[in-house]
Amino acid sequence: MIRAIDTFREIFYDLVGQYEYQYNRDLSKEITYDVIKDGSIVIPLYGRCRLPKHLNFLTLLPIVNRLREIKQLAYTHIFLVGATHSRLEHSLGVAHRVKGIFSKIKESTNLDLDNDDLIITQIAALLHDLGHPAWGHALDGITGYIVDLLKDVGMYLFHPEKLDIAVTTYLLLHNEQLTNGLSRICQKEITNSKYTRNFKEIIAQIIAEEEYPLFDNLAEENSLIERIHLLTTIIGAYKGRGGINLDRLDWMIRDYHHTQYHEELSKNIKEEFEKFMRDDISNSFNVRLVSKEYLDLDDSFKNKMENLRNEVYQRIYEGIERSFVDSILTRLAYSVISCIDTIGESLAGTTIRLRAIMSYLLMRDHEMIEISRKILHHTREYGHLLPLGERRDIFISFINKTVKVFSLFDRIPYLIQFLRDMDKFRLSLYEVNFKYVNIEPLNSAIFVFPPETATRLLQKIFEATTSNDTRSLADIKNLAYFCCIDVFKTLEAPRLEYNIQSEIDKKLEEMERIESLLLPNYYFFKRLNRYLKDNVKSREELFDVLEKKLTETPLLFIVFNKTIESREKWETIARIVFEAIFTHIQSLYHVGTHERSNQYL
Questions:
Q1: What Å distances lie between residue 596 and 152, 491, 530, CA to CA?
Q2: I need a surface site. Which of 92, 321, 443, 600 has the fewest CB within 10 A?
Q3: 533: CB partners within 8 A, 6+ apart
Q4: CATH 1.10.3210.10 domain extents, the chain
Q5: Model confidence at 158, in pLDDT bands (50, 70, 90)?
Q6: How far apart are CA 377 and CA 373, in angstroms?
């Protein structure tokens, strides 16, 4: 056990050291604010743009500059080869748009926006994606895990649905390189004493898009929080209120420009998108002031943007290819962070463990792959020696299988070819459908649990419960929400995978063991949560959403380590999976997902 801990200690403190040296050390003597001047930069779509001194300075900090090497759309380039633009390009695009939109706001309203407001909004725009990991929104499915750790260092988020916002908030409050840089800008550029006293908190509040004050000092003055609401709705939007949302106005046309996904659209939609793009770039839309402290787009332009977004969102951002790729990435990241946190408990307190985890999340893509392999292989080799108590068998089984995920990861471009042409069969016993494909060259198979089968699963759960319609729906809403922010922990995925494997071992006597690898699809729960929040009021409406709205978004994937040729074996496996998931979800459901409602708050 000593050797196991000693070996992991070296990896653990290498992570902490990398974070401290690359991203947390003070650079005030190396990068002097006074010598920085305004710059200019060519931003695709907008041409040559002026880069104000304060933004130019921030882009020189390594913690910000890392965004140059973070792809805006993560691994989407596997199936859309143009999707290689960076988070920095997008962030600079949003920051550039701020000054133009300030002019438009002044023309359209009687708001008195000054230079301090402009600088704060530009900085928030540049930093709004600062915490994005290299694997993008795939890792939103582990947000709850990180938020739970952040509580131990006094950080609370009321609606934690995106990992990047949780990480960005942490960096704005606890990263010395960034906080020192912001302090220098504040000292030189900001004159309003309300802003100078709360500079980093104001920026964090704007980026978090949290309407209720995250910090007590911001709640003390109504006029300050009202101004923050106003500036927030320039860059983003509050749930249920809307906003100008420069973030969305930029990424919609930027992703379109680079990926050329209009080739997937009908002629009419393509023409509509082209016109929207021209109007967007030229600010040819109206803005309006709502309730004195919120800004919004005019309804016609906002509705057009929302309709176009819905037209492309599922296909590009949440389609089956993206779902499969990101399910692999989510599992890898969850497993690595579990190792860092679980084994790290014997090495350091929460503050240091968080720095090790932040170091991992802030790595470039190839670095994340390399360290993930190292940590998981080490845990597989020495995990049986670690003091993990009664959870050891399930934890080690889960990590051992995650190591094998790398064989999938290395073949992703090849595997997604098979996802486009899957076979379908019906399990008559439960009147449900499944999809599957054998990948003979790799001696493996992929099993898909489609959303319409989730309908039958929930029907059976509802039949087995005495809860009324309102309570049943409330529990499903809670389950969907918590799966959005921590899909592996909420579903207790390691235990579910362990149970499925145990049943397969019992019922399929093979010369060579059939191993199952579970990949829950975060996007299924994200989309389900979105519909549940908006307009689902009954079980029937829930089933309608599952069968009609989520058709291309599977509940989960299971990868097997060998091809399964006979229909009889597929039916046996489908029955095992359906019954195991039914029993598992039912146990979570009867425990009462409502009891989880304060877990991440």
A1: 18, 12, 19
A2: 443
A3: 477
A4: 31-317
A5: low
A6: 6
Token pair 């877990």 is at which residue?
Answer: 599
Give Cβ neighbours of residue 390 (< 8 Å, ≥ 6 apart). none
CA angle, corner 87, sides to 84 and 92, nearest 5? Answer: 120
> For residue 596, is pLDDT > 50?
no
For 58, 383, 408, 553, the CA distances from 327, given in Å and listed in that order, are: 33, 24, 11, 12
Indicate the average pLDDT of the chain: 90
Q: What pLDDT digit, counting tens, does each position of 169-179 carry? A: 999 999 999 99
Q: How is 123-157 classified by DSSP, letter by letter?
A: HHHHHTTTT--TTGGGGGGGHHHHHHHHGGGT---
- The amino acid sitting at 320 is I
**In which residue are the tokens 């019992």 written?**
506
Per mean pLDDT, which range of 106-115, 152-161, 167-176, 506-515 is the poorest? 152-161
Nearest to 339 by CA among 367, 370, 380: 380
Nearest to residue 436, comparing CAs of 334, 577, 278?
Answer: 577
Please tell me whether residue 556 adopts helix, strand or coil conformation.
strand
pLDDT number for residue 387: 60
Amino acid at 207: I
- Where are the extended beta strands (E) located within 211-277? none
Q: Cα–Cα distance between 61 and 68 in angstroms, integer?
A: 12
Q: What is the pLDDT of residues 245-298, one digit of tens each?
A: 999 999 999 999 999 887 878 899 899 999 999 999 999 999 999 988 999 999
Question: CA-CA distance, 430 to 343, in Å (whole number)?
Answer: 42
pLDDT of residue 510: 66
Q: Is the pLDDT of residue 162 over 90?
A: no
pTM over 0.90: yes
DSSP H or E stretch at residue 524:
helix 522-534
601 pLDDT band (50/70/90 cuts)? very low
- Three-state SS string across 70-90, please? CECCHHHHHCCCCCCCEHHHH
**In whole angstroms, what is the distance from residue 123 CA to residue 130 CA?**
11
Tokens of 18: 């990398």
User: Who has greater pLDDT, 73 or 391?
Assistant: 73
Distance between CA 388 and CA 393 in Å, rounded? 9
Interatomic CA distance for residues 471 and 466, integer angstroms: 10
Count of CA atoms in the C-beta half-sphere (13 A) of 215 = 20
E strand or H helix at 271, and its extent?
A: helix 267-281
More confident residue, 465 or 214: 214
The Cα angle at residue 326 between residues 320 and 328, in degrees rounded to 5? 105
Residue 74, phi-psi category: left (phi > 0), alpha (psi -120 to 50), beta (remainder) = left
- Measured distance CA(543)–CA(461) in Å, rounded: 13
Reported as a pLDDT band with limits 50, 70 and 90, residue 318 is low
Nearest of 313, 164, 203 to residue 248 by alpha carbon: 313
Supply the DSSP symbol for 238.
B
Cα–Cα distances in angstroms (integers) from residue 370 to residues 27, 67, 118, in the given order = 28, 19, 41
Give the H or E element holding residue 354: helix 350-361
Amino acid at 249: L
Angle, vertex CA 296, rays to CA 140 and CA 272, nearest 5: 80
Give the residue, 170 or 536, on which the prediction is more confident. Answer: 170
